[in-house]
Give the backbone structure.
Amino acid sequence: MKKLIEKIPGLIAIAGFVLGVIMLLLSRGFKTGVFCDKSWINAGEIFTLLLIGGVYIYHKFLNWQKLLLAQKVMAYFPFVPAVFLFVLFLLGVFGSDTLLWFYELYLVVVIVFQASRFSLQRASNTEQPTNALLISFIAIIAIGAGLLMLPGMHQSNIAFTDAMFTATSAVCVTGLAVCDTAKDFTVSGQWVIFGLIQIGGLGIMIFGALFAMLLGSRLSMKESVAMRDILNEQNFGDISRKVLFICISTFAIEIVGMFFLFTMSDASSKLYSRVFFSLFHSVSAFCNAGFSLQTDSLTAFRGTWQVYLVICPLIIIGGLGFPVLLNIYEIARYKFNSLYTNAPKLCPPRLTLHSKLVLGSTVVFLAGGAVMLWICEHVNNNSTTETMSLLDCLFNSVTARTAGFNTVDISSLHAASKLVMIGLMCIGGSPASTAGGIKTVAIAIMFLTILATIKNQSSVNIYYRSVSVAMVRRSLVLVAIYTMLLWIVTLLLIITEHSSGTNTLDLAFEAASALGTVGLTTGVTPELTVSGKWVIVFSMLAGRLGPLSLLTALTISPGQGRYHYPPEPLIIG
């Protein structure tokens, strides 16, 4: 009997969680009055908040003496905004609809918290966290597709394949769309896409670790091991610091981008619409998603300063990778402290080999891509097409590396320009970033290996450091697998789209865009057959997880043998 009583708070919390999901679905997923009156739904949402919050405080109260001051503050923190908003509502600052909107937002946070913690715990209980990562991606995509199919999420009926395609594109931060995000989805549907982009960009495991630290909990040893494998981190002590930096830097950069993009929104719209417009595009740019609330992407904003001074930097920063951003932040903080404090200058941080390789290759690929696009468009220019300026070429070089926004009609580009963009899409961004593709470091190592082989050098060297044989082999395998996948996806699209008459170059462009999680299209995406759409869906998932990670998750490792076979020479070339 005593054990049963002890389980009651947990059962109440589960019931509150389920009730909260039901209330949210009834409130936003269906039209008003379909199942019951709106007032009953609102009352159910408030009751759910009290239920979940009450159980949470009860658990904290049981161990109140053991909690630190910060943990005691966090115990009541969820109720502070709720009470504050309720007071503002009583004072007449805003109406009941706004109050309930904030309460629904809090319910969403609670649901994401529970789901992310569950995903992190599942990852910690498996030998290969990559398997849990794959399952979590598939689960989020399935949930997102189910939400997008609800009547309150779209303007007209949406097929299951189209819902899965849109959800996969959002979670895999690709941007390819068979539905018009601006016209075919309601505001609630656009919020769902926004949430899928943010979760897909950061990763559900990152949210799980963040919520655990915010609520004063420590990651268990198994959870730390899982996060180490997912983040590719070497030291256990750096995991919490890295998770906090990833989340804080992401949200800070996105908020700054939102403020600068606010002037790009329609001045005649309501404040809420303008804020959502700027926030949506800021998150979409930083996460390299490429989704836009404009039917023609950013074509209407071609030539505006926000495209080149806000969107472009957001794409580049998001594609550099969090290890590089953390390295730059540590150097900047050290230099700032050295100027304004008298702290001893011992062991100053420096740019790591990884950061140097990422920054150097990024500059080369961006500048080289822009120059090649400019040459292709001007050498092959004719009077029937509008010539791209150097800024247009630079933006297309930036966005082709997994962003997906466009300021010009991609279908009107010359075939040579499309081929250049296919190469840029395959290269992609940098490791541990929101970008896809083969990754800049792997491409750089491949070229360095070729150069070392030509010079008959025994090792691959860069910046007075040598690259390990294991890293060289991993990079070459990644390039080889990615190339084979691109060939397979292109072949499948040629087979599924043979009746449409689409030329092979455009299908290869579509395959590279999906596999590199870019989102650019020559107009093929909306015209794809059902089979073609599913080919693109699997391509986007493979591109987001990474070919090597996906291969690891789908195979069983037999372990390393304790023996070696004798070598025998082969003839190559």
